[in-house]
# Entry
Amino acid sequence: MSKATLHMLHTCPFCWKVRGLIEYLDLDVDLIAVNGLKIKKAVSFTDGWGKVPVFTDETGTHHVDSTLIMKFIDEHYNENKLLNVSAQERTSKWLDWSDQKMSKATVPILYGTLGSAFKTTTRISKLEEFGFISKRLYAWAGFPIMWGIIAKKRVKKDGRKPKQLWHDLLTEFTDEHQGKDFFGGSGPSLVDFSVFGYMRSISPFPQFAMLEDHKNGIAWYNRMNDLLN
Ligand SMILES: N[C@@H](CCC(=O)N[C@@H](CS)C(=O)NCC(=O)O)C(=O)O
# Structure
């Protein structure tokens, strides 16, 4: 038996989903930050999966894919309490909603304009564990790639400005709370941790201010933050 680990990137939204849960349950897990330009090599033990987050439990078994990792953690360390908070069908539907909608909205807000892409990539190159050369390479080569190729296409396809898209999703999500504090009712469910992870991944960046304008969204976010250990 050895200590559980989480291979992750500080700026990866999927990693934040798992990290929130680990903090909430106060689990003893070593966080291993990988080099963002060498992810595949850092997690080569995952037999071709090649992405973070990767959770390795005390028996040395690897778990991949953030939503599956969250379910595993809730099942093994928390008696499935967070999955069972509300009807399982509703939980599954909204876990999918979060993975489909929230993940797609995150890239445009970070990289949707040339200015925001530049702010994001320079901030990432400071936050992550890059080597001397790759840090500079990432900051200068990374932003036109993210802006030009990925984000612009997505913004154009959706038609809404990145801020509007986030606000619409936060409204849809908080309306589903039906007047309660959390999606799960008086306490959080796995869905709360999933959406919280996507939103929290934006918190190190100046663009987070755009999300703070959403009254119900930020009130819920702060309630989630208050639950963490
Ligand atoms: N569906 C996966 C997505 C994970 C993912 O795409 N992680 C990114 C970092 S944010 C990654 O490792 N990308 C490396 C690659 O695709 O080569 C999850 O939810 O865990």
Notes: The domain at 88-227 is CATH 1.20.1050.10 (Glutathione S-transferase Yfyf (Class Pi); Chain A, domain 2).
